[in-house]
Amino acid sequence: MGSRLIAAPVFAVTLCSMIVVAYSADVNNPGNGLHVGFYNRKCPNLEKIVIDVVAKAVEKDRKLPAALIRLFFHDCFVKGCDASLLLDVTPSGEPVEMLSPASFGVRGLEVIDQIKARVEKECPGTVSCADILAFASREAVALSGLPRYEVPAGRRDSRTSRASDVILPSPTTPLKELIDFFSRKGLSLEEMVALSGAHSIGTVHCSFFDYRMYNFAPGKPKDPSLNEVFAAQLAQQCPAPNALPAEEAKKRAVDSDPTTPLVLDNHYYKSLMQGRGLMESDQVLVIDPRTRGVVEKLARSDSFARAFANAMIKMGRINVLTEDQGEIRKNCRKFI
Questions:
Q1: Could you read off the pLDDT of 33-65 as tens digits, one per residue?
Q2: How crowded is the C-beta side of 58, counted as CA atoms within 13 Å?
Q3: Catalytic annotation on 74?
Q4: Handedness of CA 193, 198, 200, 206 (dihedral sign)
Q5: Cis bond leading into 91, ω under 30°?
C-alpha cells in the first residue's frame, strides 16, 4: 500500500482536514482481529467526532496531547489495550488501575468521556472505549506535529481492572529490564526507543529525576552523564527535595523538552546526545551501546515520524480483546 503524508497543524485542526492518511504500510499486520476501516459502515462519523473533541480540548490545554498519549501507553502496557485503565469500579470491588501509585499524574479521561458520550448518541453500543483511546491518542500525535496515521480498530473493553496488575518501568529501571519488558509485549528494541520519543512533549515532575542532581550515588551527588549547564538550569526549577515544603515540592515539574515542549520531534534524541535527558531511563539510551545507534539514527535523520507511528500502531495491538472476548461499554468508567 502506498502512503501519502499530511502533517496536521500543531494546535489546530478542522474537519475539512479529516482525510486519514496511513504513515505506515504495516497498519494491517499482524491481524489480531483488528483492521483499518472497522467503523466505516457501523459509525462513519467516529473519527470526525474524535478529531473535533480532541482539537477543542487541546485549544484549552496545549499539554493535553502528552496526557492522552500517556493514557494510551498506560492502558496498553498493563493488561493490553482494553480500556481497563478507565474503569472506576469492577465486579470484584478490588482497587482499580487508576489507584495504583504508577498511575500518578495520568489524566485526560474526561476527554475520552466526552468522545464516548457523543459517539453513543450517534452510534449506540457500537464503538469500544479501547478503540476511542486508540483514535484519541492518534489525534494527540497529529496535533503535536506528526502526520496522521491510520488506526486498526475492532478492540473490545475489559470487564476487569486491578491496581495490583500495574507493573510498569520506573525512571531508574535498568536498560536490560526495559528491553525485556518491551520484548514481553512484542515490541523490539528499536520500537522501544521510538516510543520513548513521546517524552519530547509534556512535563516531568521533579521527583522523577532530582536525585540525579543531588543524591545520585554515595560520594557522587550528581549524575556524571548529566550536562553541567543543563543540571544548573534544572536546579533553578527543582531545588533540593528538602529545600521546599512537601506539598510545593510535589507540584514542581519541568518541560520534557525545553526546546520544543509542545511538538513531537527528534529534539528528544538530540538532547540525549548532549547529556540533556531528564530521566535516567532516557539518558541511558544513548550511553548503552545496545541502543545508542538507534538514538543516533533518530537524532540525525527524518525517520522519527515513521518509526513513532509504526511503534504506536504495533503497541495498539498488545493483548487486545476482540469479538466476544470483551464488551462495548456505554460508559467508559463503568462495566456493563
A1: 899 999 999 999 999 999 999 999 999 999 999
A2: 29
A3: yes
A4: negative
A5: no
What own/partner pairs with CB < 8 Å and gap ≥ 24 does 288-297 have? 288/175, 290/175, 290/179, 290/189, 291/175, 291/189, 291/192, 291/193, 294/189, 294/190, 294/193, 294/194, 295/193, 295/269, 296/269
Read off the C-alpha cell for 268: 528528544
Asked if 134 and 309 count as a contact pair (C-beta separation under 8 A), the reply is no
What's the pLDDT tens digit per position in 85-120?
A: 999 998 888 999 999 999 988 999 999 999 999 999
CA 53, CA 330: separation in Å to the nearest integer? 18
Sign of CA dihedral 65, 69, 75, 78: negative
Select from 75, 94, 95, 76 the least CA-distant residue to 86: 75
Q: Would the pLDDT of 250 be above 90?
A: no
Residue 72 has pLDDT above 90, yes or no: yes
pLDDT attached to residue 27: 46
Predicted structure pTM score: 0.90
Please, what is the angle between helix 189-196 and helix 175-184, to 10°? 110
Cα distances (Å, whole numbers) of residue 161 to 100, 207, 227, 272, 333:
11, 27, 41, 35, 11
- Output the pLDDT for position 310: 97
Which secondary-structure segment (H or E) carries 73?
Answer: helix 64-76
* CA 334 to chain CA mean position, Å: 23
Q: Compute the distance between CA of residue 161 and CA of residue 85 in angstroms, rounded to an integer.
A: 7
Catalytic-labelled residue, pool 74, 199, 205, 267:
74
